[in-house]
Amino acid sequence: MALFSSVISGPAARVIEGMIRDITQQVIRDHNLPTRQDVEAIRRSLDDAERRIAELELALEEQASSTPAPIDSAINPPAATEAPPAKRSRGRKSLRHLACQVEGCTEPHRSKGFCSAHYQQWRRGNLRGYVLDEGIIVDGPRRFQVNRRLSGKPCTVSGRVNARVIRVDGVTVEATALEPAA
Ligand SMILES: [Zn+2]
């Protein structure tokens, strides 16, 4: 609006400014559009809610890893003995940094250690290199079941076709071969 005042004299500029303001407000009312303040407020409360959910999830993960799990240790002895301290330190680290766990991704952490885009990709089962929801690992046409608690963690599949070695977070884990996806 400063542009007008430099071209047009004071009173005329004020009239034009007033008209533009009225028209803008009329358009916003007519179209029932949210104002910039509305959008900012919504964005702030969304960010807040997402941050709280991420913190709650991490707190729950930490709680789950510190409670004794007889089934877990029966299925998976190496992970049960080695994983808990690592899990706890990772939990604290991600709480501080809140960055996506996918290498090279600098987006903020949202859920399961992923940013929202990578979390969506992971939820749809399209993120390779991570244990999918419900502890499923996809290896070409083959699928493996590992402990559900490992879902969202980085994994690798190596070894010969009929003797696959599956590592989650660098630790070799027990895995059951599933029927190929239909
Ligand atoms: Zn990401």
Task: Give a brief outline of the structure.
51% of the residues lie in helices and 14% in strands. It has helices at residues 2-7, 10-30, 36-66, 70-75, 77-97, 116-123; strands spanning 136-139, 142-145, 155-160, 163-168, 171-172, 176-178. The longest helix is centred in the N-terminal third of the chain and has 31 residues, at 36-66.
Word description of this protein:
The chain has 182 residues and is of the alpha+beta class. It has one domain. The chain has six helices and six strands; from the N terminus they run H-H-H-H-H-H-E-E-E-E-E-E. The protein has a three-stranded antiparallel beta sheet with strand order 1-2-6, with no helix packed on it. A hairpin with a 2-residue loop joins strand 3 and strand 4. The longest helix has 31 residues. The chain is elongated, with a radius of gyration of 26 Å. About 9% of the residues have low confidence. The structure holds zinc ion (ZN). Zinc ion (ZN) binds next to helix 6.
Oligomer: single chain
Give helix and strand order, one letter per element, not per position: HHHHHHEEEEEE
Average of the residue pLDDT scores: 77
Percent helix range: 40-55%
Low-confidence residue ranges: 79-94
Supply the number of helical segments: 6
In terms of DSSP E residues, the strand content is 5-15%
Strand order in the sheet with the most strands: 1-2-6
User: How many domains make up the 3D coordinates?
Assistant: 1
End-to-end gap? 63 Å
Largest sheet: 3 strands, antiparallel
Radius of gyration: 26 Å
Characterize the overall form.
Answer: elongated
Q: How many β strands by DSSP? A: 6
Bound compounds: zinc ion
